[in-house]
UniProtKB/TrEMBL annotation:
<dbReference type="InterPro" id="IPR016135">
    <property type="entry name" value="UBQ-conjugating_enzyme/RWD"/>
</dbReference>
<keyword id="KW-0479">Metal-binding</keyword>
<feature type="domain" description="RING-type">
    <location>
        <begin position="240"/>
        <end position="296"/>
    </location>
</feature>
<dbReference type="GO" id="GO:0008270">
    <property type="term" value="F:zinc ion binding"/>
</dbReference>
<dbReference type="Pfam" id="PF05773">
    <property type="entry name" value="RWD"/>
</dbReference>
<keyword id="KW-0862">Zinc</keyword>
<protein>
    <recommendedName>
        <fullName>RWD domain-containing protein</fullName>
    </recommendedName>
</protein>
<dbReference type="InterPro" id="IPR001841">
    <property type="entry name" value="Znf_RING"/>
</dbReference>
<keyword id="KW-0863">Zinc-finger</keyword>
<dbReference type="InterPro" id="IPR013083">
    <property type="entry name" value="Znf_RING/FYVE/PHD"/>
</dbReference>
<feature type="domain" description="RWD">
    <location>
        <begin position="9"/>
        <end position="111"/>
    </location>
</feature>
<dbReference type="InterPro" id="IPR006575">
    <property type="entry name" value="RWD_dom"/>
</dbReference>
Length: 368
């Protein structure tokens, strides 16, 4: 009996016992071929191993091919290369099929973040070559990603926990920290969670001709962290649409914490940032159009709540490309929970202000 025949017989007898959650699909001597499914409690970490025997086995490494319906092709290619190096370093000259299967299974079990390999690689690319190494930290044991993004002197830090059944369920965002104003921290936290939720839950109103059964969960790690990345990088560059000056001071220590001061930062529904004093002045002066005033910004905000970075499960799992709006002025009705004023009330306040001003002018003229 040749060593290849002996090896195949050994795999047929021992594989499913010494490699937990494995299942032999094919085990033939002519041609010499092994095909084994490596299963797991986590469906999205299952893969198939195809092993072919070269003519000078075991002096030559067994030929390895990995396939999976869920794991990234790039990840499988990298894992194949890693396994081949392991064989050359430790297993050559002796039968090693079982060793290969055990190594592959152990590696995938020890690296649960393999289910989002492509998303992590894309995030690294977006951070750029000049990004510091502490901006994207992977914690395989706890299956989480620590992400820090910087814009000027400002930063936003978040921990994204990957569930066992990812991407069927969305990432869990925890431990958010920032030196941005509280209004922007609430926005980043709330919007990123909403993006993650919409990746895995069908919309209440399905597109025409579609049903909830047509919805497919989409990976949520990249979408949520990409949103946090672009938003945080852009905050310190945003200008107040009224005065044209930067909304945030260059130094976080100069941020106005008193919500009664004019320099306090406000964010309205369309996404634009204003100095509170500028927003008050704009809303209190005529004209007062029916339906309320519109945002005077020169263009639509990239992260308008209703349109930016939503789940896209109906379109499949492809990572979205968001293009800037090249239209004219923003034109979205100004809305804010602290600034809800109907037209009649605004006109009345303006009239009272003008009446007081005229009275003061009359007193000044009289005293002269």
């Amino acid at each position: 009996m040749s060593i290849v025949d002996f090896e195949i017989d050994e795999v047929r007898k021992l594989c499913e016992n010494v490699v937990p959650h494995s299942k032999i699909i094919a085990c033939t001597k002519d041609p010499a071929l092994l095909r084994v499914d490596i299963q797991s409690n986590q469906y999205y970490r299952q893969f198939t191993v195809c092993l072919r025997f070269p003519s000078e086995y075991p002096k030559q490494s067994v030929l390895i091919e990995l396939k999976s319906k869920t794991l990234s092709e790039k990840f499988l290619q990298g894992l194949t290369g890693l396994c081949e190096r392991q064989v050359k370093q430790e297993y050559l000259g002796k039968p090693h099929c079982i060793k290969v299967l055990q190594f592959l299974q152990q590696y995938v079990n020890d690296n649960p973040l393999c289910v989002c390999f492509d998303e992590i690689q894309q995030l690294r690319k977006d951070l750029g070559e000049d990004a510091s190494t502490d901006q994207l930290k992977l914690k395989q044991k706890s299956s989480c990603v620590h992400f820090t993004v910087k814009g000027g002197e400002y930063y936003y830090r978040v921990k994204a926990v990957i569930p066992d059944d990812y991407p069927l369920h969305c990432v869990d965002l925890q431990q958010q920290e920032t030196n941005l104003p509280a209004v922007l921290l609430r926005y980043l936290n709330g919007q990123s969670r909403e993006i993650a939720r919409q990746c895995v839950e069908p919309p209440l109103r399905m597109p025409k001709g579609k049903t909830a059964a047509d919805f497919q969960p989409a990976p949520s790690l990249y979408r949520t962290l990409k949103f946090c990345l672009e938003a945080t990088k852009g905050f310190h560059l945003e200008e107040c649409p009224i005065c044209g000056k930067l909304v945030l001071p260059q130094t976080p220590a100069e941020l106005e914490a008193d919500d009664n001061k004019d320099a306090f930062v406000e964010r309205v529904y369309c996404g634009h940032l204003f100095h509170q004093g500028c927003l008050k002045l704009y809303l209190s002066e005529p004209p007062f159009p029916k339906g309320g005033k519109l945002c005077p910004a020169k263009s639509r905000h990239l992260r308008t709540d209703a349109t930016y970075y939503m789940g896209g499960g109906m379109q499949g799992s492809k990572i979205p490309t968001i293009l800037p709006d090249k239209g004219g002025a923003c034109g979205i009705r100004l809305a804010h929970d602290r600034w809800v004023v109907n037209v009649k009330m605004a006109e009345s306040r303006w009239a009272q202000k003008q009446a007081r001003q005229r009275e003061l002018e009359e007193v000044v003229d009289f005293l002269k």
